[in-house]
Amino acid sequence: MTAAFASLSISNHPASDRRILSLFFPRLPTDRIARRRWGLSWRLPPGSTVHPEYPPLACAGRVANAMRITALDETAETFGLRVGQGLAEARAICASLDVIEADPAADRALLDAVADWCDRYTPLVALDGDDGLMLDITGCAHLFGGEDRLVEDVDRRLTAFGFAVHIAVGPTPGLARACSRFGGPRCIAASEATAALAPLPVAALRLEPQTVMDLARVGLKTVSELLAAPRPPITRRFGQAPMLRLDQALGREGEPISPRRHLPLLSAERRLAEPIMTEDQVLDLAGRLAGGLKTSLEARGEGGRLFELLVFRVDGRVFRIEVGASAPLRDTARIRALFEERLSVLHDDLDAGFGFELVRLNVLLSETYDARQPELVGEEDNREDLTRFLDQISARLGERALRLPVPLASHWPERATMHAPATDALKALDRPAARTDVVARPVRGLRPLRLLDRPEEVEVMSAVPDGPPASFRWRRVQRRILRAEGPERLAPEWWVDGEDAPPRDYFRIEDTDGQRFWLYRQGLYERRTVTPTWFLQGFFA
């Protein structure tokens, strides 16, 4: 199937049409440890929550200079332990408690991996704190047989991967999140929003803990009680947050969610009835998907500059492979060849495991395609050969493997150029404006082929103070100068260095051994405020 996405926002749909799926992982840290110990399917068959060979499991970390429980598994909760409890107290209640040091970075990496896996349902996936995800499934449910079947598929797969997960689908992010985290219904229609939200506690509205406590002191403990209360007194006493969160959950106020990744311009995918195992099969599918995207690119009058291949493994791991093109590209064979070059480098990293079940090709960046007619005289297109070479090198070694100097709008030597990837550099130099700039560039003195990363100070002796040097000492070697040419004075860029920055007088010199250097004197003798200093900046051939 092929789909095109043109918007990078998720806030343009009416509340009655939007469908937001919220995933809440209440035991993500302990599930991470259990998956490592007992395998991904440790929760199967359904209802299995413990392993007989291991004691109750908890994670602990330092909170406010004290070791406290940060996560518990189901068995540990049966002993009456709670998150936030002191570690010493928890050990006194359950002497067999297995305590593992909390690792928030590993938990976040696991959540990011689950978010990548959720791309199989929708490209609009956003993080929801440290233990949840938001998926905008608007217009996607029919691809999986309806909303109920999509939710069942998500629940079944995540449980098989060893996660405890709570799922809810609603017309707004606030309502879906509240129901997934506080026990509401799984699928809520827009007309059922108030009825689903009313029995939940006020904490379900994502309010600050202090605000929840203050509302409880005046008898407002559930959303239904907050709905029945007059709005002006609540706003005056507790601020705008309670009513704003309530209106967002009910769809009265808009609430955008931002996806983790930019949406692809074009996308094509293939769901496989039988998993594939080899790289050749992946490349064949990539070529077929590229053929499906070619028609869409032609309709837009564009070619792809950046392609992304997503390969979903059966066990939930997702591989993202990106390749770039030096010129807009539509040719199916060339796109396949780029991924072949890239996979030749990632061969050991692309572990098929039990096979790949889904392959998707995205166009992340596109540009206007300039169709060129072949030369009638039969001359070879050297430009085409160059772009092929650059694409192959970039795909195999990375875009930074080949870099070219690109001129910048500065006369200061260390700022006059920068090294850019060869594909971007050639594109910049090929623009008519760039060629005009080269012709119109002001005349200046010769420049060395090699510049030091940073000018190095040297000791110079000269016949007259403001004349050319007669000899200089650099890196403990004294060099006598045979010839000198200069000076070439460069004024500082006052808008960068400030108005008090000293100018430079550059000299091209040759020593008695025939070596040629580029030296400059920073500062002027007629200005007594600064003592001039000599530096070596480059070397001529």
From TrEMBL:
It comes from Rhizobium rhizophilum. This is DNA polymerase Y family protein. Keywords: DNA damage. It holds the Pfam family IMS. Residues 56-180 form the UmuC domain. The keyword DNA damage applies. Belongs to the DNA polymerase type-Y family. InterPro entries: DNA/RNA_pol_sf, Rev_trsase/Diguanyl_cyclase, SulA_CellDiv_inhibitor, UmuC. Transmembrane segments: none annotated. The lineage of its organism: Bacteria, Pseudomonadati, Pseudomonadota, Alphaproteobacteria, Hyphomicrobiales. Gene3D superfamilies: 3.30.70.270, 3.40.1170.60.
